[in-house]
Amino acid sequence: MRDYDLIKERISYCPDSGNLYWKKTHLTQNEKEGDLAGGRCNHGYITLKCNGVSYQGHRVAYFLMTGDLPYSVDHINGDKTDNRWVNLRAASHSENIVNQGFRKTNKSGIKNVYWNKAKEGWSVAIRSNGKRHNLGTFDTIFEAAAVAIPARTRLHGVFANHG
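Predicted structure:
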């Protein structure tokens, strides 16, 4: 957070709804006291500008609740706009990454499962702590999924996201 005192002075947070509100009217801005602070940005997150500086809403919410700002603030349910307190947690960069759903380029529809052309089967590969875990190649996508899901839970713990 670039200016902790300014954020505390100008923004309030409702933990139940996840909404941020302006506390004070600013003569140089269009915001009025009680108005929602911020809006959805191109990347899907709630962002707001305070004194000309952009902030991500989930980071502001976490800071206002704890007074702390961890490296990453993770949305537990994966919804970038859901800034309710029950949906936010501190995370390392790698923990935040493993909580993502499957990529748009995923063709199997199952996270960490892909068609291995060379082996002519469905392969499972999971990254954890910077290491790639190759868990085998299987005849059916169902066999691969049956291996991927428990392995992801074991390797990623509470941050495991099954897509």
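Summary: Strands lie at 11-13, 20-22, 39-40, 46-50, 53-56, 72-75, 88-91, 113-116, 121-128, 131-138.
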